[in-house]
Amino acid sequence: MLSTIISRTIKDEKIMKGTLKLIIIICLLPNSLSLLAESRKDFIRKYKHIAIREMERTGIPASITLAQGILESGCGQSELAINANNHFGIKCHDWEGDTYTMDDDERNECFRKYRNAEQSWIDHSEFLISRPRYAGLFSLKATDYKAWAKGLKAAGYATNPKYAEILIKIIEEEELYKLDRNIKHRGNTSSPSITVEEFAESIASQTRPGNISYRNREEMRNGIICIEIIPGDSFEKIAGYYGIKLKKLLLYNDKTNTNLKPGQLVYLKRKKTKAARGYEFHRVKAGDTLYDIAQKYGIRLKNLSRYNYLSPDSPLTEGEKIFLRKKADLL
């Protein structure tokens, strides 16, 4: 009987992370199973005070955070939760702390590693409130867990088409909605409440022809989010879209003017002092400049110049080695 239920659940409620162990699937089963009920309830007892505190601080419903924690971490029993205190599967992105590597959608993916589980829950909140794609969520009613679940899916939080349904099912089975309070996000205290349909429409409108949709073009280089430029883009548009001061955006990209060309990368945060691990040097191709190389690898131009004893505008020779780290790091 148990094997039949597990098989059906795996088929009907396939979760995002393909590497989660069987215990995570069991954690998602209907709570008529006493083992599951205890597993979930233990997890809720252990972390609900953090979820409530984060709700009061940021406006994210406690029910949503707890359901996501149950789903993403398999009630705290996933490899990532056990070895990295990472309960929400957040990858490294622009993270500068400790990391944990494991196979997920691809081999050897980088995930954030925390000192303790509480740090993971706090970082989950910061992740949602700091990403423009989720800004509209905070105009939804904080007590409308269904709208939040559907809104997360609409904003692209998960690729699983049943993600919202799974969250809602967990919330209702455990009556987590009883923990929610109608608290507005600190940055949206004057924003009117909207329906999930209005939020989904605002997300969809960003992908229509002629509309700016930078969030769908974000990519990661050297742990920093960047945008590859296409015709019609400008520093001014990108700065306005992300709410970054133009002067800062230019500084992040070692620019003194706003000139852009298709294919160039624009970074949304300050670049690193050296290339990502595994990149030691770049072999110059025809037309390469030191600036092009700095942007390609997400390195500050002044550091790249220093490593190679060159000035930023030095001409380069095809086939020449340009070191992406200081010599001491290469030994």
Helical percent range?
Answer: 40-55%
Mean pLDDT: 80
Number of helices: 14
- Global Rg: 23 Å
Please state the structural category. mainly alpha
**Helix and strand element order:** HHHHHEEHHHHEEHHEEHHEH
Can you tell me the overall shape?
A: elongated
Q: Give the termini distance in whole angstroms.
A: 59 Å
The count of strands amounts to 7
The percent range for strand residues is 5-15%
Main beta sheet, described? 3 strands, antiparallel
Which strand order do you get reading across the main beta sheet?
3-4-5
Q: pLDDT below 50 for ≥5 consecutive residues: which ranges?
A: 1-23, 185-191
Describe the structure.
With 331 residues, the chain is mainly alpha-helical. It contains 14 helices and 7 strands. A 3-stranded antiparallel sheet has the order 3-4-5. It has a two-stranded antiparallel sheet with strand order 1-2. A hairpin with a 2-residue loop joins strand 3 (218-221) and strand 4. Helix 3 crosses helix 4 (62-73), helix 3 (34-58) crosses helix 6 (117-130) and helix 7 (145-154) runs parallel beside helix 9. It starts with a helix and ends with a helix. The relative contact order is 0.09.
Can you describe this structure in just a few lines?
This protein has 331 residues and is mainly alpha-helical. It has helices spanning 2-12, 22-27, 34-58, 62-73, 79-84, 117-130, 145-154, 163-174, 196-205, 235-242, 246-252, 290-297, 301-307, 327-330, and strands at residues 99-102, 109-112, 218-221, 224-228, 265-267, 281-283, 321-323.
